[in-house]
């Protein structure tokens, strides 16, 4: 089962990249992003790709420009996640053969992202939009649009977001905080997967 959970490893140092990746995979999380405002992020991402690209979808978050997109292509990244909707970044990502998940919050941003070729929409910060706001917005989106709630989402509200029709979730601090051991991250991941499976199956 490929769970629609994207692990957001903000602050991950390269030294911990392999061990944390193994912990996530063992728990059943196979979509992993390292935000580019982490320490030496390209080094972490490249290590993870070399180690587990056949088992996981690995890429970067907080991607703000096309220069970063090219660098990610060069190291074999598979997805690009951004906090904003930048059509140039989306177009460059798709031209490079990677999946594009831009951040949106309004109908204008959502449709701009889709027109630019986005593979899915990252609703960020989701807690500001809230479930009722997402429900209203989803009503006008193409039915097959993949949607992800990021920011203020977790096991406590998985059920209501899934009931509203969200595709999946991006999980950050409740999964990983800088300084946590791979063992702690794996335990967090197992708890998240259990909660996700209870509402997704």
Automatic annotation (TrEMBL):
Superkingdom of origin organism:
Bacteria
EC number(s) given by UniProt: 4.1.2.21
UniProt keyword Transit peptide, yes or no = no
The protein's UniProt keywords, in alphabetical order, are:
Carbohydrate metabolism, Lyase
Show the GO MF annotations. 2-dehydro-3-deoxy-6-phosphogalactonate aldolase activity
- Cite the annotated pathway: Carbohydrate acid metabolism
CDD domains per the UniProt record, alphabetical: KDPG_aldolase (cd00452)
Pfam families membership? Aldolase (PF01081)
Keyword match Lyase: yes
Describe, as the record does, how this protein assembles with itself and its partners: Homotrimer.
Tell me the protein family, please.
Answer: Belongs to the KHG/KDPG aldolase family.
Query: Any idea what this protein is called?
Result: 2-dehydro-3-deoxy-6-phosphogalactonate aldolase
The source organism is Tritonibacter horizontis
Q: Which gene encodes it?
A: dgoA
């Amino acid at each position: 089962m490929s769970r629609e959970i994207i692990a957001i490893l903000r602050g991950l140092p390269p030294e911990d990249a392999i061990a944390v990746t193994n912990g996530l995979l063992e728990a059943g999380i196979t979509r992993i992003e390292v935000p580019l405002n982490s320490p030496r992020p390209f080094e972490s991402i490249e290590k993870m790709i070399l180690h587990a690209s056949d088992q996981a979808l690995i890429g970067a978050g907080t991607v703000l420009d096309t220069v970063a997109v090219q660098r990610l292509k060069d190291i074999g990244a598979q997805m690009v996640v951004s906090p904003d909707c930048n059509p140039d970044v989306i177009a460059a990502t798709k031209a490079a053969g990677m999946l594009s998940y831009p951040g949106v919050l309004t109908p204008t941003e959502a449709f701009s992202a889709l027109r630019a070729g986005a593979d899915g929409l990252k609703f960020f910060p989701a807690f500001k939009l809230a479930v009722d706001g997402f429900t209203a917005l989803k009503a006008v989106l193409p039915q097959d649009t993949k949607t992800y709630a990021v920011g203020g989402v977790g096991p406590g509200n998985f059920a209501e977001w899934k009931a509203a029709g969200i595709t999946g979730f991006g999980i950050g601090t409740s999964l990983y905080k800088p300084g946590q051991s791979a063992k702690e991250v794996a335990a967090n991941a197992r708890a998240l997967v259990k909660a996700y499976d209870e509402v997704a199956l």
